[in-house]
Write a structure and sequence with these properties.
Blueprint (H helix, E strand, L loop, with lengths): L2 H13 L3 H12 L2 H6 L5 H19 L5 H10 L10 H16 L5 H20 L2
The structure holds protoporphyrin IX containing FE (HEM).
């Protein structure tokens, strides 16, 4: 199986439980006060749904789909809009990998590497639009 197949299936297992996104934001917001502050006025229930779709977009782009929607995310997160600091994306990735480890019963260190490989182009695109 290719890394994108492994990750696609892993994400399917993770998404069976809505707690995946609750835990992701708990881990992500615990990683820094600056991050937590960015979400003080956010409707987190809506945000969890948006993220569910955003991660799927990253996986689909790694599988060859158009990156138009990721470019829109790059724009909303850039210095003129949410002003998301480039160094925060490492915390985002760590929080996501930790949540996969907790939620995917088939997690292995190799699967973690597949996730890192698949996430990289999408994260680079969004962060690179800063
Ligand atoms: C909003 C995805 C990284 C903070 C959003 C939305 C999506 C999304 C889908 C909603 C659509 C939009 O408003 O454009 C992602 C993905 C990321 C990422 C896929 C990683 C590649 C980050 C990071 C931060 C962040 C590192 C740092 C704090 C926010 C904020 C909002 C947002 C503050 C708006 C929340 C609100 O409406 O109140 N993100 N994001 N995101 N994201 Fe991200």
């Amino acid at each position: 199986m290719t890394p994108t197949d492994l990750v696609f299936q892993s994400y399917g297992r993770c998404c069976r439980n809505d707690e995946f996104f609750v835990d992701f934001y708990d881990f992500f917001m615990s990683s820094s006060d600056a991050i937590r502050n960015r979400f003080v006025d956010t409707d987190m229930s809506a945000q969890r749904h948006l993220l569910r779709n955003g991660v799927m977009q990253i996986i689909l782009v790694a599988r060859g789909m158009s990156d138009r929607k990721l470019k829109d995310l790059g724009q909303s997160h850039n210095r003129h809009n949410y002003n998301i600091q480039p160094e925060w994306y490492g915390l985002w990735e760590e929080a996501l990998l930790k949540t996969v480890r907790v939620h995917d019963p088939e997690y292995t260190p190799e699967l973690r590497e597949a996730w890192r490989e698949v996430l990289k182009p999408g994260i680079d695109l969004i962060r690179g639009a800063y």
